[in-house]
Amino acid sequence: MPYSHHSHSGQFCGHAKGTLEEMVQTAIAKGFHTFSLTEHIPRSIEDFYPEEQSSHTEETLAKLFDDFIVEAMRLRDMYCSKIRLLIGFESEWIRPSTLAIIQDLRERYTFDFFIGSVHHTHTIPIDFDKATYERARAKAGGTDERLFEDYFDSQYEMLQALQPPVVGHFDLIRLMSDAPDTEFQDLNGVWERIYRNLEYISSYGGILELNSSALRKGLAQPYPCLAICEVFIRMGGGFAMSDDSHGVDQIGTNYPRMLAFIHRAGIKRIHYVDVATRGKGKDSRLPTAGFSSISMDDLAKLPFWTKNQ
């Protein structure tokens, strides 16, 4: 019964498919222990994705998120005997106004946790398509290396501002690059920034998301890559599993491959947000939950792996 801390539904995300309830039902059918509902936060109109520009205003996109919370709470109550559903969100970090949006959401709602992610550099999406990535690269100075540096600098700003309990797809920037399977170590300026960011995450007890979506998008390793995982392990950092599903067909996709990667990296325990730890910690980032963990030996013995080969 593994875990996913990251999902999106077509009901509340323009580039996903299916309803939120269909996502939950599929997670139950596949034997998930914990499944997190983490739709994207609302954004300013200048940061709309193409599929949103003709279908939403700022007001309707904000209402869509409000509707997500209502539906997520309904599903959490309806299916509580079958699965642990967590309600959170996935952040953006685009421009100064993004912080105000996140602060407003956290004041209005009590979330189990949230994911701190970066999808933009120089306000341009870096994982939408190759042409958009190339626009961001040109603005950064014309090379992947310069864009990588700017991405990890933006990520560091996000980390300092939010201290997210789970850091989403840490090295997403490699997806559309000319070398998507890079491990960054031969890029001194980039590697220095990666190391700085990992040290900061470790300093406040953040968890790195192991995100299997990289595998279904054709990369050889999940996010983050092996070299980054090995450094974070040496820092004493923890990891959580995610499929970053955008439809029922992506729930648990490539989890057996990710399990093999976890063994290869030498990760000994997998962490997960656990509402059973509610009230036991003093972490303001997790007002209703905390982290528990399971050993890799115990995780590998769960019936999920034979059921979902």
UniProtKB/TrEMBL annotation:
It catalyses: L-histidinol phosphate + H2O = L-histidinol + phosphate. One of its GO terms (biological process) is L-histidine biosynthetic process. It holds the Pfam family PHP. Its EC number is 3.1.3.15. SUPFAM superfamilies: PHP domain-like (SSF89550). One of its GO terms (cellular component) is cytoplasm. NCBIfam families: hisJ_fam (TIGR01856). Belongs to the PHP hydrolase family. HisK subfamily. This is Histidinol-phosphatase. It comes from Pleomassaria siparia CBS 279.74. The lineage of its organism: Eukaryota, Fungi, Dikarya, Ascomycota, Pezizomycotina.
